[in-house]
Amino acid sequence: MDLKQQFDILGVLARKEIKTRYKNSVFGYFWSLGNPIAFTLIFYFAFEVVFKAGVPKFVLFLMTGLFSWQWMSNFVTGSTKHFVANTSLIKKVNFPRYIIPLSVNLQDAFHFLLTIPILLVMMYFYHVPYNFNLMLGIPLIFIAQFFMLYGMGLFLASLNIFFRDIEHISIIIMNMVFYLTPVLYPIEKIPENIRWMMLMNVFAPSILAWRALFLNGELNMQFLGLSYLYAALFMLIGVYFYRKLVWKIPELL
Length: 253
Known about the structure:
72% helix
C-alpha cells in the first residue's frame, strides 16, 4: 500500500471518528468543551473561593491545564480499545494497523486545537500580551504532545490485545496521575528539593510548557525539551512493541 492510499485511509478514519463522536448531537463540538469548562468552574470555586489559593490568572491557569489534560486522558484511556473496537475492519481490510490510533489521536488533537481560541480570549481578558513566542510555541508544544501520545497509544493498543486488563489499569492510573500532575496547582507549590520528581511525570512538561506560554507568553525551553524527550522515548517504545506484536493482532481479536 503506497503513501497516498495510507493518507486516504487515515482521512476516512479520522472523519469517521469525528462523525461518530457527534452523531445525533445538537451542540456538536461544544460538548468537548463542556467537561473541562465545568471542572474549571468547580475547581475555581473549591480552590479560589473556598481555600483562597491565590493563584494569579486562576481561570486561565485551570483552563490551560484542563484542556491539555483532556486530550491526554481521552486518548490514553481510549487507546487500549483502538484495535479491539475495529476488529471487523482489521479482519476485512489489509492496511497498516498503526493508522487506527493515529486517526484517533488526530481527532483528539483537532478538538484540542479548537480550545485554543478560548485560551487566547482569556489571555486578552487577563491582559497577557500576544507575542512571537505564542506563534512559535503552539505548534512546537503541539507536535511534542501529539507524538508522545501517539507512541503511548501504539504501545497500549498493541499490549491490550494480549492483556485485556490494560484497559482497566490505564483508567485507574490516569485518574491517579491527574492529581500527581500540576493541572490544579502550580509547580512552585511543590517543595524545591522534590520538584525534580514532578518533571519525571511524562505528562507534566507539556502542561507546564502550555502554561508558561499562555500565562506568561514564555517559551520555556526546559519544559519543551523534556516534552520532546518523552515524545521520542514513547515513539521508540510504541513502534518497537507495535512491530513485535502487529502480526498477531488479527488472530487474537
